[in-house]
Queue: 2 jobs
Job 1
Amino acid sequence: MDLTRDEREVLDGSRGEIPRKLLLTMVRFGEAMDAERLVPVEGPGHLVIPESKPGVGARTEFLESLVDAGVRAALPFTADPATILNETLSDLTDDQRKRLARAYPTEVRYREALTKLGLRDAGGLTCTPWFEEVANRPSYGQIVAWAESSAVVYANSVIGARTHRNPGILDLISNVVGKTPLAGLLTDEGRRASWLVEVEAAGPINGQVLGYIVGREVGAGIPWLTGLADMLEGGEHPASGKFLRDFGTNASVGGGVGLFHVEGVTVEAKRYGRRLIRDDARRLTIDEGQIESVGASLRADRPVEELRPNKVLLGCPHLTYDQLCAWTDAVEGELARAGRDRLAVETVFVAAPDVVSRFRAEHPGFATLAVAGGHVGSFCLEAFMQDPILAPACVVTNSNKLRYYSRNVYMLDDEALLRVMVTGGTEGAAAASTTGPSGTSSGSHA
Amino acid sequence: MPRLQGRAVIGGEVAAPAAVSRVGFNPFASFCDQFDGGIDAAVCGDPQNTELFGEPLTGRIVLAPFCVGSTSAGPCWERIAELGLAPAGLLLPGEVDPLTAGGLILADVWLDTAIVCVDRLGPELLDRVETGDELRVGRDGVVTW
């Protein structure tokens, strides 16, 4: 790899041991990817290591050693959702709180160190940093160093920014060093499609299901999808953004997709057309029957009466402001129809702190939801379900990502979720609730 | 003696028995139950990996077509190395992915724990090696057994 004179001096150790090891990490990362050289990071980062839990976050001592060495990111970064330590879930027992505190003994020090290294503020703790309320949205073509699979694939594919799928800790190191290897997804050639995926389906398509299928098939490849432009109206359909978020998240869950192109829809596909498809691209056809059968296999394999869920979790990845509003309106309507004023099953909606702040300030449903026993928070549902201290016995959701990474989590469509929230799901379907508020029910592309 | 030549991503010499997965190896799913330590050896805890689920991985050389999983791979590899529970090595037929490379480099640079990794060994790797085969990996990326 070509190194500048300045970089060679740092690697010689003349600027200190911490700067040497930080740069050495980036150089070796670049060598593993056959990078030509390191290039500057041009925009704020997004990190996947917000919490101190061993194996999930960085080592607290490591962060503090960087602080002591005077290291700091030039641009403030955002990071994935915070731990549940400061949330006020109604059914969290004192015993659970004590055990949690023991599981995160260095959390305060960790957050302090991360802040000193450049964490923007608590409002930036979300897996959806590009939402307008959070406003960490890179520009087209901008080189950034992001982690969090769902954020990386959105930034690359929909925004057209350029970032590796950085592993946790490397995300921080890239941003404090201010450099990232020029290779793979940062290069024009590395962004060309290695798979041509023809989607043959007449009806609306569920983005989660299609993304999951594509991810399973292409692994870490770059798919170019055809057959979706009409449904998404060239990206102008109001539901297009959600479809692309769902697709990307699940393509990264099912495989390791960091970039996808949708013909006539995504930004680089529109700009460059089929020149972006490699000559040796492999071909794949996905039809309606396959989408339907895989979709069915992801949904709960037994009726709600048998599951008897004790929690409904929504927001993996974090909900948009509009989704929060739509769910609240739907819950209010369903409560009224059922003649109830309290939710039958504890229901948790999670969104970025800045989105929740806006929701609290602007939407009257926030108060209604609180009175009805709903909870609006900003923690990570995946981390919540993976924590043995917290994980409830049976959870229902509409997120395939949450289902995939957790145990005891079952997928339902939105109408069924609404019934579970309001009645426990053991009463018949309310006739009026035919359309789910988030649009992730099977058959919808909203 | 069978021999394959690859690229040493994390160089080192190691001799250990193979643990072969013919599906993608997910480090986070394999190790996340064992981050608290207090055990002598890590076993594969990924129920979706039917070949390796329940197999001890500490000190063995893992072979897989590729690695899968989320960007949490970095802290995961580092933690399992910090606990002294890491595999001795990882062999891949194709290119190492950035998540795996980054995690292994973190362990090497910051914990001085080399989990030897050789990639670009070719597709025959997984056809020719079985779980339990005694492998020897050279600093130059040569694998023999």
Job 2
Amino acid sequence: MGNVLTIILQRLALGLLTLLIVSIVIFIAVNLLPGDFAQSILGQGATPEAVASIREDLGLDQPMVTRYFQWLGGVLTGDLGTSFAQANFASFSGTTSGATTIAEQIAPRFGNTMFLAMITAAIAVPFSIILGILAALYRNTIFDRATNIFTLSSISSPEFFLAYILILFLAVLNPIFPSLSNIFDGMPFSERLEKSMLPALTLTLVVTAHMMRMTRAAIINLLASPYIEMARLKGLSPMRVIVKHALPNALAPIINVIALNLAYLITGVVVVEVVFVYPGIGQLFVDSVKIRDIPVVQACCLIFATAFILLNLTADIMSILSNPRLRHPK
Amino acid sequence: MSEEPLVKMRDVWLEGRSDETWNPIINGVDLTLQKGEVLGLIGESGAGKSTLGLAAMGYTRDGVRISKGTVEFDGIDLLTASAAVKRELLGKRIAYVAQSAAASFNPAHKLMDQHVEGPVQHGVMGRGESEEDGMELYRKLRLPNPEQIGFRYPHQVSGGQLQRCMTAMAMSCRPDLIIFDEPTTALDVTTQIEVLASIRDIVEQFNTAAIYITHDLAVVAQMADTIKVLLKGDEVETADTRTMLSAPTQEYTKSLWAVRSFERPLKPAVHTGSVPVVSVQNVDAAYGTVPVLHDVSFDMHEGRTVAVVGESGSGKSTTARCITGLLPPSAGQIMVDGEVMPPDYRKRSKDQLRQVQMIYQMADTALNPRMSIGQIIARPVEFYLGLKGAEKRKKVDALLEQIELEPSQYYHRLPSELSGGQKQRIGIARALAAEPKFIICDEVTSALDQLVAEGILRLLARLQDELSLTYMFITHDLATVRAIADEVVVMKDGRVVEQGPKVEMFKPPHHAYTDLLLSSVPEMDPDWLTNLLTERGVDNIGDAAVDKM
């Protein structure tokens, strides 16, 4: 196991390094956004003095490198900074008390996004893997083709289109689920679940195709191996051959695709959130970009990047663990 | 044996699909196997042995079909039987032992889990009972530590042991028939003996019928009651083992039998004081921190063939890598013509590189599949000799003639359009293109059929006489050594255990390990294995014998 531990530690260190590089990229990219907060909040008629004063208050007049290290230092000590939009400017009120920190602002939104992602994953992952196994088992039959057509058409359609179709069928024609997902703190779990169902189903349709097709392909890829032939020649049922003999060896690529899709569920759900008015982090992100609220945008980006890196790291580690050669060295 | 045969195949035709057309693999072969009988199925690669063996189980691989004929097992027509009926037979009454146990065991499950799967799924035994039985079989097959070995993963067990575990797995339901598909081809000679002895014992003990597929005549002579010879999908002849060995009736069979007769005449002894072409001096080498070679020294003289023999992992190929400079030695030096070579090939001059050439075991992977034969050979001609245009073409044509391939016919072909033996000839031509003094031949015939291999050996011998080349011949096949070597170096665990002229090596007394190697090479005598086992004492085969040294 020492071997595996070393690999895992290496991956962790690599993940941290990636995160550091990503933080630089985020900082530069966000600062390259055209326009700035002071300009956009004061409007066309702002005097240059007023703009300069706000810029000074927010520290925007400092050189970029200084600002980066200030930001990085803050992040490392758990302080994501203060939202520009929430700040009370010294020049107007003489005090900065009462401002909400970004952490407080993002926390509930991020919680909501995670909730939606987890529900979707709980539905989509088992669904796609079972579908993939069945498609591999009944490969080249009508079932296989129908599954492929269904998943491919759902991934090829725009998300908002899928969302409206689901609303039409599951909320309007057959009022099973609510079409608005305006959840809030303190809502009981069952109601939360019911309200999140339509966005979760929409996202399930979006992510199923990748996972299902990878499961199918990874399994079929192994069917020509000698040990699969051996399993068949032992007179095992086709289902057993696939689930017991092919699937355990096909796990690594499947895990990786699952991780990519889970990362997408956390970082890429803006459109679905907008359609269902779901108060997730995606909406916050888009709103902040609109008003050039740079600290919030940076914080969101950093959270997205962390989620991506963590999920891929988990996938890497699980792939390693799925290999018996590494789990049980000679 | 008047009762109904166990397997009855009549006029079986098999076809394989390639490029959208069906090509014949087996053309109307009959096969009859009585209960408890062992049939040896022999032939060169492409003869259709494995396909026929699998067809006896009613199974065909993807892209193969049985186009005509009947296959009956114990009165059941396997070709019309439903999938469920066949599944009921497979594993339970008909079992299969594959060529590569390492590839045929599922890497994700422990050996015992795979062993008990058949009996449990077929409802023959419960899990506990089957595990007990598995350990008993492991014991019968003389596996070390039979109580524990089943709880390991396939990658934790050596090749020879895995092959025996697979035989045990095939035995798990006490089938009436086992198909052995080249079960010892991938093993070293000393390991092969153990597996052969185990298989033969257990087949006799349970009176199991078997079809034993192999290309090695000496092996089949030990195992089979009856031998059937196949050639390109046609049956050549069938007879009981002793008759077949002593009086084959067909020309083809006779030619197979005669292959091992090739032997080069002896050469006069090397002059004392002459400078060796290549001299390996006190070489140590390691992969990373793992030491592989320990104090390896031997000389190779002009116009001679030095055979380096030993089992896999003994350091033969590593020595070659040190000589070529691919793996710089950690101690010692390599001398060519009395001149010390830089250890790293990147530091050697073009002329130093030219002196040492290599021919590889797998001609398939050693030739660039996207380059034509002409381009493959022209590249070293241009690189080492600096020839261009018409001169280059002339040289390539001359080289093709040297390896007995018609230049106009082969110049523009791709490697994929050549047979295995022809590809190996291209490998030889490519090495010759540099006009070297010294060629390392790394297991160059072990992937080839015996007849083809013999052709390659004859070609190499002729080239040696014409060009006074020096060969380092890496092999684990002692028949090859006997055929072409002048001197022999025996390696084990990265050390040279014995070296000397061939005549002396094949004459007793030997070093104990050389003796084990020599006596492990199967002979055509059907009583060879029995006699050998008696001689060594049953508990003293293979592993045990090696451990004693």
